[in-house]
Design a protein that fits this description.
Blueprint: E1 6-10, H1 14-26, E2 30-34, H2 37-47, E3 51-55, H3 63-72, E4 79-83, H4 88-97, E5 101-104, H5 109-125, E6 132-135, E7 138-141, E8 146-149, E9 152-155, H6 158-169, E10 174-176, H7 177-185, H8 195-207, E11 217-220, E12 224-227
Parallel strand pairs: 1-2, 1-3, 3-4, 4-5
Antiparallel strand pairs: 6-7, 7-8, 8-9, 10-12, 11-12
Helix pairs in contact: 2-3, 4-8, 6-7, 6-8
């Protein structure tokens, strides 16, 4: 499954780095690490990993800064943020900064590996499925991670693309937040989890002309979302 996928671990606790490196290399991943936000951002830009495991609290800066820096530089690799904080506001801020998912310390390495494998399994499907589809005047390219409309080109992160594809494949059908999270992120959603809502906001900013009066991604209040082509 790993197929020499490249994982960057940005973490300053040596024991966690050693444990993650050993477990990920045992699964067949290629792993490198960085212990500061600055060095981690540099490695991510230069090394172009297939996925980034990012600690929130780093000695020189925080994970929010790393996420914002990488996204501003066009790095679209999935980012899984590790946080010792359980407050929902910290997780929401991470998602808004550009993280794709988060796990609270202490976390299960087996669960982390399962999430990584799910990411790469879905990525591999881009080679065998339809690589492009249209939404109104927008063209979505799965391989290039782009949303284009004439001369406008917008980048989509892995989970933005996965969420948009799921909604489009189920056009006209109301999907619950729980179902969306399970199919896109590969797990059961915890109470008060704002991941799905935050990614819908991200997509509306890129896709909709009027975010408060969306044309394509509609809210089904108290339940979830529905895509209207």
């Amino acid at each position: 499954m790993a197929d020499e996928k490249r994982i960057l671990v940005i973490e300053d606790e040596p024991e966690i780095v050693r444990g993650l490196t050993h477990a990920l290399e045992f699964e067949g991943f290629q792993v490198t690490s960085a212990s500061t936000a600055a060095s981690g951002a540099t490695k991510a830009i230069e090394w172009k990993p297939d996925c980034i495991i990012l600690d929130l609290m780093l000695p020189d800066n925080n994970g929010y800064w790393v996420c914002e820096t990488l996204r501003s530089q066009g790095v679209l690799s999935p980012i899984v943020m590790l946080t010792a904080k359980g407050q929902e506001s910290d997780k929401v801020r991470g998602l808004e900064a550009g993280a794709d998912d988060y796990m609270t310390k202490p976390f299960s390495v087996a669960e982390l590996i399962a999430r990584l494998n799910a990411i790469f399994r879905r990525q591999s499907q881009y080679d065998t499925h339809v690589q492009e589809f249209s939404i109104g005047d927008w063209n979505v390219n799965l391989q290039k991670h782009t949303l284009t409309n004439g001369k406008q080109v917008k980048r989509l992160t892995f989970y933005e693309l996965e969420l948009l594809r799921l909604l489009k494949d189920n056009a006209g059908e109301a999907l619950s937040r729980e179902e969306i999270y399970e199919k896109v992120w590969g797990g059961q959603v915890a109470p008060n989890n704002r991941t799905v809502d935050n990614f819908v906001v991200k997509l509306r900013k890129k896709l909709e002309d009027h975010q408060k009066n969306p044309r394509y991604i509609l809210t089904v209040y108290g339940f979830g979302y529905k895509f209207v082509p």
